[in-house]
């Protein structure tokens, strides 16, 4: 009996070391060496300051910026500690009210009343989606061009440059990361100011 108990304890210690210490450290090391940016949260810096992550959406409300997809996180919007959807069904009056309010806000803030892309009025499943569709970005061009006093074609060019396309042309849809796109917008404005 003691022989079996000893073998079981030795197996437990070995497996605990392998799966609880050695394997996690090995994977951590691979992440740090080969995928350092991703392992550190895909953080984005500007002027030496961390301003966000390319993986977590943030709220932009100024007319001169692209606006993110709405957040459904509890408490504060875009709360990284409370990732999750609203869990409101399609017939829930609260969801209908939220979508109507977002639609009204977009219509009043965007001079060109084209059909509003659905991702600009509905929250994602995580509530922290950092990306919007190309249609969602293009919908906002007139407002941003007017606020920044730049040509819409220049903004369209930025969208095209920062767009991410489906994997192998099959999985997902074309999209843009809102934070990266807004940083590119700021750089465009800076370049245009310096040229004057």
Radius of gyration: 23 Å
Strands, total number = 4
Report the average pLDDT across residues: 87
Number of domains: 2
How large is the share of residues in beta strands? 5-15%
Termini separation comes to 88 Å
Low-confidence stretches: none
Could you say which structural class the secondary elements and strand pairing correspond to? Answer: mainly alpha
Helix share bin: 40-55%
Reading the helices and strands in chain order gives HHEEHEHHHEH
Largest sheet at a glance? Answer: 2 strands, antiparallel
Mind explaining what this structure looks like?
The chain is mostly helical and 196 residues long. The protein folds into 2 domains: 1-40; 43-195, no CATH class. Helix content is 49%, strand content 8%. It contains 7 helices and 4 strands, in the order H-H-E-E-H-E-H-H-H-E-H. It has helices at 2-34, 36-39, 93-109, 134-139, 141-148, 152-162, 178-195, and strands spanning 43-46, 49-53, 131-133, 175-177. The protein has a two-stranded antiparallel ribbon. Helix 6 (152-162) crosses helix 7. It is elongated and about 80 Å long. The mean pLDDT is 87.
Features:
elongated; two-stranded antiparallel sheet; two-stranded antiparallel ribbon; 7 helices
């Amino acid at each position: 009996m003691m022989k079996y108990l000893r073998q079981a304890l030795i197996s437990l210690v070995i497996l605990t070391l392998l799966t609880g210490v050695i394997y996690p450290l090995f994977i951590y090391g691979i992440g740090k060496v080969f995928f350092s940016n991703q392992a550190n949260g895909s953080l984005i810096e500007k002027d030496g300051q961390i301003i966000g992550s390319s993986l977590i959406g943030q709220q932009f409300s100024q007319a001169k910026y692209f606006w993110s997809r709405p957040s459904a996180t509890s408490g504060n919007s875009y709360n990284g500690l409370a990732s999750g959807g609203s869990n409101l069904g399609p017939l829930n009056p609260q969801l209908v009210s939220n979508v109507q309010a977002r639609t009204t806000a977009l219509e009043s803030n965007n001079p060109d009343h084209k059909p509003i892309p659905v991702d600009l009025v509905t929250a994602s499943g995580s509530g922290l989606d950092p990306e919007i569709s190309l249609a969602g970005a293009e919908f906002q061009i007139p407002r941003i061009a007017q606020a920044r006093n730049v040509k819409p074609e220049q903004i369209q060019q930025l969208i095209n440059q920062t767009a991410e396309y489906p994997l192998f042309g099959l999985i997902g849809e074309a999209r843009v990361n809102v934070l990266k796109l807004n940083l590119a917008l700021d750089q465009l404005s800076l370049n245009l100011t310096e040229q004057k």
